[in-house]
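LAB NOTEBOOK - FOLDING QUEUE
OPERATOR: T.R.
BATCH SIZE: 2
PURPOSE: Compare the predicted structure-token outputs for two unrelated chains run back to back under identical settings.
PRIORITY: normal
REVIEWER: second-year student, initials M.K.

ITEM 1
FIELD SEQUENCE / FIELD STRUCTURE:
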Amino acid sequence: MGLLTSSIVIFLIGAIETIALLKLFMTQLSEKGIYFSVEAYNKIIIHIISTIDDFLLGMVLLIFGLGTYDLFISKLDIAEEKSRINTIRRPDWLRIGSLDELKSILGKIVLMILIINFLRFVVECNFEQPLHLLYLAGWIALVALAILLSHGKDIEQTKISKKRLAAFKLSKKNRNKDNQ
């Protein structure tokens, strides 16, 4: 319950951050029109990054809270276990089958939070020498590699699922033609 309560608090903080972002945007828009200064633009981007960070952290707490409850205390979808026809179901990404699955999902979200914090750092940083830009390029390459290593298998699974779905729809369409 503590994790679920914490996730609600973090989601509320994200909503407050979104309201602050809108207020900043409207203030800048009324004062300067559609042409923002670099400082104003960077402030808006930092607010957006903070909002994304808050909502991702809320998701981590929500997934971890529901996942640990589902794994260790009681199944959340009791009605679904009794009847497979149930129309209201949790999304697949929120169905945790094992502790390893939970750790994998959480690891990916934590990686995304770290990447978003890296983005915030890049926006706030002043690059004074050309070598700093070279360092930035190297860090971006490492971030891309981290995403590829953590999500590469998921991307392939999504492609396979899409191919299977397309083949299923095609076979269903062919069966309907044959029946007519």
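ITEM 2
FIELD SEQUENCE / FIELD STRUCTURE:
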Amino acid sequence: MKSIMYKNGALKIFLFIFIIFSGSCEKNNGAPFTPDFSFSIKEGNIVEFKNLSEGEYHRLTWTFGNGISDSNTDKTKVFEIYYPQAGDYEVTLKLADYEGNSETVKKTITISNTDLQPSFTLTVAPDNANKYNLVNTTEGTYDSFCWKYRTKTIENQPQHTAYFPFAGTYTVELQVTKLNNTFSETKTVTIVQDDANYLENLTLAWSDEFDNETINLQNWTFETGASGWGNNELQNYTNGENAQIVDGKLIITARKVNENTSVGSYTSSRMVSKEKKEFQYGKIEISAKLPAGRGIWPALWMLGGNIDSAGWPACGEIDIMEYVGFDPNMVHATVHTPVGYGANGNGNGMLLETCEEEFHIYGLLWTEKKMQFYIDEPQNVIHTYQPATQTNANYPFHQPFFFILNVAVGGNWGGAQGIDNSIFPQSLEIDYVRVYQE
């Protein structure tokens, strides 16, 4: 980063900013005011603007010719506008009153000196065609800068290696900030093929191994419900009474209260990591052994962290694993979006003969390009979700999501063939939840 410095008070730097203007004002058609403004040179390519308009008016709308504008009712407000690059800029002041009258004055200013010009070099890394070396070559003084590409923002690194693991065309942007103004330069990168070593490059970002004596409440919250839950389920979710850690495993147990097979006839637990542990993209693996029996409905899933503001299904839903006991050994992976939710979710099932007897890994590879669900190994894919053209409606997955671990009883799907009261208690056992990221 280059900077302008004063050495022992002896060096003075003069900015030559020549401001030339040609003023024009729309003909006054009886409006009781006349727009006008002045400007003066300040140090560092800054121009000060003052309102000199006369008459009775209400609102002032400024357009400074460099992408900055302002609309207000303060007639005495003074603006200091930064013009980093040489060139001609048309400045406009428009006045309006309550009667619908408006008048405009325009003046052109010419900035002769370039004080700041964002620029950078971009070259492919010699050891990996999916990596590019970025070097900030911006000339001039500025306060801070950042790189933006994919979903990443990298602050104040003059040299940075950007990673593009998937084939496609990407935009790399350098944003330079000075005096609360941001200026940018962009370039594009085309990646020919996916990085074959992508999965090996991921590292463990977070996990809960359930190795403590009690459930870690810094990771999880118990959501409770005293009258069943959604989807016409019948269980009441308790505040931890149905969840415990035994021998390094989380045990969520659904219990029978009475034989009525109605709301409140069962208790269970629903654990969420909302506002505690939320993640965007990565390889997610949950090792679990599933409960059994008609009427049971365990799930390992995620919801968008914006659910309170956006609602469902706009927030998106990722069902890493769902299981209904009336369909033994068939595990499901599904996504729910505004264009497909509920019974119309986009998903698939796979036969897994030992899901009730053994622990299996229920995995998700989640990137900005696609979602790929698998069992035990990434190569054992159960479902891939990859819209040809992404929109907010079909891919609301560019944001952090939180985990939900629960066992429901009955409900629209889980209770579609009734409930066998002889199966209880039934437990979902979870060995770990792990998140790997770049």
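REVIEWER COMMENT (ITEM 2): Helices lie at 198-201, 307-310.
FOLLOW-UP: none requested
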